[in-house]
UniProtKB/TrEMBL annotation:
Its main location: cytoplasm. Belongs to the gluconeogenesis factor family. Keywords: Cytoplasm, Membrane, Transmembrane, Transmembrane helix. It is found in: Cytoplasm. HAMAP family: Gluconeogen_factor. InterPro entries: CofD, CofD-like_dom_sf, Gluconeogen_factor. Pfam families: CofD. GO terms for molecular function: LPPG:FO 2-phospho-L-lactate transferase activity. This is Putative gluconeogenesis factor. Required for morphogenesis under gluconeogenic growth conditions. The keyword Membrane applies. SUPFAM superfamilies: CofD-like.
């Protein structure tokens, strides 16, 4: 009864079309009754009038239904430019889309998610919580919560909400002694964690606020810390410190080493049609997730398509002079050679001006070294995958199309 009263509330422009539909049904009923009145003297006249009433009733019912749908559409989606039928088709299409699990962190992962969400709603992002720098690191140290930054980026990337809400979550304060450098989204998740007493619940409730497609999960709820051992033997503690120190990385590891993943993450991996590793910083965004042993074990045992998306450019302090095979070998060295089936690489040339800009920062395009990749016995897929503006980044639409095409071919 309460719902019925709400539907009849003034100003919803709903009642009038209900009455129009009822009027149409009455006209149809009268028409059928009149047409079935078999008075021999007036048979033709009754049939004609009845037929006209039925036609009029059908028209009135159709008009009422159409206008009712438009009223609901205008109320729920006032600013949408797309046609309702197109939106319904897209929603139906995405609900039946493949189950994709993406693993990583940083801007590379969130960029890819913006493309994938156009094809499917069945997305699970498993995101690193090893960050200890910037706003995330400060909140981690001051409040004792897991770092929210990478998770925030993925939530925003999967959001189906107003642009203002996205700008709000990504807004970073530039003034204020305590607020400077913090993003609103990080503070929001931190506040939700304090209110709910649980970081996982805070992420889930933030997902509802942003109406995201799929789910975003931390790789673990434990206070995991990342460290690196250089080939020189030097030990570097802290995710944010690793790229700052000169020297080749021998290995990275997490503490506690037996950190447990979320059950939802393991379920998603078990049910996945495709598992995507990267793109993102090899040592500080991707590997912290794979070093959660039960996650890497679940990936290896999965029958899903397993794809590693190699970075377009090397990263100073992490992957200096790395080729594609160096990236793949690093994965193998840390978690075994059965972690991926394919590696996806970019074969589009980078603009010379951008090459010069990156060279000043100690970065260059990742070379595709075919001979060594053949020795690693991994299938390589090369495509034009990048956007080139002020930075070289993966194009989310190109990336998503390659991934979906691969899944469809596999099916």
């Amino acid at each position: 009864m309460n719902k019925l009263r709400l539907m009849l509330y003034p100003g919803l422009k709903f009642k009038r079309w209900v009455f129009v539909i009822i009027s149409g049904v009455i006209l149809i009923s009268l028409g059928v009754s009149m047409a079935l009145n078999l008075n021999e003297l007036n048979l033709l006249r009754y049939e004609v009038i009845g037929f006209l009433l039925v036609l009029a009733g059908i028209y009135v019912v159709g008009l009422g239904i159409r206008r009712m749908i438009i009223s609901i559409y205008d109320a729920l989606l006032p600013d949408k430019n797309a046609e309702l039928i197109e939106l319904l088709y897209q929603e139906r299409y995405r609900r039946k889309g493949p189950k994709i699990v993406v693993v990583g962190g940083g801007t590379g992962l969130s960029t890819m998610l913006r493309g994938i969400k156009k094809f499917t709603n069945n997305i699970t992002a498993i995101v690193t919580v090893a960050d200890d720098g910037g706003s995330s690191g400060a909140l981690r140290d001051e409040l004792g919560i897991l770092p929210p930054g990478d998770i925030r980026n993925c939530l925003v990337a999967l959001a189906d909400t107003e642009p203002l809400m996205e700008k709000l979550f990504q807004y970073r304060f530039s003034d204020g002694e305590d607020l400077k450098g913090h993003s609103f989204g990080n503070l929001f998740i931190a506040t939700m964690t304090e209110v709910l007493g649980d970081f996982d619940k805070a992420v889930k409730e933030s997902s509802k606020v942003l109406a995201i497609k799929g789910q975003v999960l931390p790789s673990t709820l434990e206070d995991v810390r990342l460290s690196a051992r250089l080939k020189s033997g030097e030990l570097i503690k802290g995710e944010s410190q690793i790229p700052k120190v000169e020297g080749k990385i021998e290995e990275v590891f997490i503490n506690p080493e037996n950190s447990k993943p979320l059950p939802e993450a393991l379920t998603a991996l078990k049910e996945a049609d495709a598992i995507i590793l990267g793109p993102g910083s090899l040592y500080t965004s991707l590997l912290p997730n794979l070093l959660v042993k039960e996650l890497s074990k679940a990936i290896k045992s999965s029958e899903a398509l397993k794809l590693y998306i190699c970075n377009v450019m090397t990263q100073f302090g992490e992957t200096d002079d790395y080729t594609v095979s160096d990236h793949v070998q690093t994965l193998y060295d840390h978690v075994g050679d059965d972690i991926i089936d394919y590696v996806l690489v970019n074969n589009e040339e980078v603009d010379s001006d951008l090459l010069f800009k990156y060279a000043k920062e100690g970065a260059k395009p990742v070379e595709i070294d075919w001979d060594k990749l053949e020795e690693l016995d991994i299938e390589v897929i090369e495509e034009s995958l990048i956007n080139q503006s002020d930075l070289v980044r993966h194009n989310p639409d190109k990336l998503a199309k390659v991934i979906i095409d691969l899944i469809l071919e596999r099916r």
